[in-house]
Each structure stands twice: as C-alpha cells, then as structure tokens.
Amino acid sequence: MRAVVRDRYGPPDVLRLATLDAPEPGPGEAVVRVEAASLNMADVDHLLGRPRLARLATGLVRPANLRVGLDVAGTVERVGADVTGLRPGGRVWADLFDSGHGSLADRVCVPASALAPLPGQVAFDDAATVPHSGSLALQGLRAAGPIKAGERVLINGAGGCVGPFAVQIAKARGAVVTAVDHGGKLDLLREVGADEVIDYTRQDVTRSDRRFDVVLDIADTRSLVALRRCLAPGGRYVLIARRIGSFAEKALLGPVVGRLTGTRMGTFAWHPNRRSDLDELAALLVSGAVRPVVDRRYSLDEAAEAFDRLATGAARGKLLITP
C-alpha cells in the first residue's frame, strides 16, 4: 500500500510517499480503503510538532507515529475479530485525531469504534472535508448555547477550515451571520451564506457600534476586552483555541470578565470524532444545509504541495487528497 509519511517534525518537504505492507486488522480493528481525505490546520500542527507541549504525547524529538492525515471517508475492506456493526463494503467516515492518524494513504487500519456509518446520499469527497473541522464548528456553536432564530452571530476568522462550516451551521439554526476574514476570503464567505462579510484589514469590528448575541472566535487574535465590546447585553463569546496560552486565558479570565459585564465568555473542551456529532453533521449534509467547499484536489504524491497551500493561508476552502 502507499502512504504519506514523515521521519521528523518539520515543514511540508519532510513528507514522502512510501510503500508499506498492507495492514492486517487485529481484534477490534478495521481496514478502510480510503476514498478521500482532507487537510486541517491540526494536520499542519501535527506535522510541525506544535505546540511543543503536545510532543509529550507524539514524541519529544522525533514523531513516534510516522503517518499523517485526520479526516477520512472510505469503504470497510476487512474487519478483525470481535468487531460488530461493521462489515466489508460499508461506507464510513472519521476524524482519526485520537486513532493514530494515517488517512493520507490508500488504506488505513483503525479501531472499529472510531468509524461512523456514512449515509449513501453523501459523496465521499464531501464527507472527507467534514469530520475534524465540522465537529469543531458544531461544538463551538453548541458551547455558546442554543442558537435561536434571528440571533446575530459573529464568526471571527471565518475563512479557514472551520469557519465555513460554522457559518452554514449557524445559518441552519436561523441566525443572521456576520463573517470576518481578510479580503481574499470574502467571496468564499458569501458563497457559504454569510449575511454580511467584513475585511478585518479595512474595518475593526471591535471598534464599531455593532453588537452581537454570539461571537465565535476562530482566529484567536484579539483580547477578551476587545471582543467583549462586540457583545450585546447577555451575549456569549466562545473561543476555538489553537494556542495553550490563549486557552488558559479564556478559560480562566473569560468567566470573570463575563460576570463583571453581564455576558458569558470562555472556551470549551473539544471532543474529537464524537459519533453523535458525526451523525448530526451527516444529517446537515444530506439536507443540503451544509455544502462543503473544496478549493483544490491533490493526489498522494502531491501532499506536500497541499500542506504548503494550507499552511500559507492560500486555500479558499478545504483541500482534498485522494489516493
């Protein structure tokens, strides 16, 4: 089998396409024939070995796991002993964040419990874009409390991997959505349904007189004080954290600022690959409420190019990789 691997932490040029032995499923495992995979910023972080604290789990000097790739959609090929609920030929999808990574390959062996059934109405290419980033968007909005029809939702940093899903999920809940990113991403944000778009290089939304019921902060570039100015009385602010320091700040200081200002501010503990989230996202895909936007498609031997495009911020939608 072919798989994208790396021998050390570093930029995309550490990646190479290798020929490996075909995987054999052990007890409780399944081998999936990969139909499509996609990249997330978490894949870039995993490649670079950041944050450095994460290397306590992934390998201090060199990565313990050479495989890469989180999002996978494919077909069950073989199952090991003691596996129930899966059979060869079944359509499945998953976020492999907690299950060994390795979706950038033509086959991957994972715990069977990590795999969720994929409805036949959902194309593999669409499904592969969703599990990691879609779950982050769903859980972030859920952490803000139920989104009510007509509520004003601001999504800061909406043009990356997570933001387009957050825009569409909020719209599906009936919200009026304002999306913030740089000018090169505004057409993408209009395409996914944002009611208003703001170019942060031209307008500082925290200095305007606009107030929002919910602020979902994906960019993680502004202070609590600045973002507090965006909130209406009783408003809710939620951070999707990528930096440990920022997570600690919002988790510890956010509730204090919230109590002092009559708002709710903080972050949340993310749970990757939760079956109930994948089922909810599948329903949104089937209904058409969420429509993934694919920027470009790459083959396995072009994986380094795809990583580079994502890491430099050039992507306008998800980057798909197919065997």
TrEMBL record:
Pfam families: ADH_N (PF08240), ADH_zinc_N_2 (PF13602). CDD domains: MDR1 (cd08267). InterPro entries: ADH-like_N (IPR013154), Chloroplast_QOR (IPR052733), ER (IPR020843), GroES-like_sf (IPR011032), NAD(P)-bd_dom_sf (IPR036291). GO terms for molecular function: oxidoreductase activity. Residues 10-321 form the Enoyl reductase (ER) domain. It comes from the Bacteria. This is NADPH:quinone reductase-like Zn-dependent oxidoreductase. The lineage of its organism: Bacteria, Bacillati, Actinomycetota, Actinomycetes, Micrococcales.
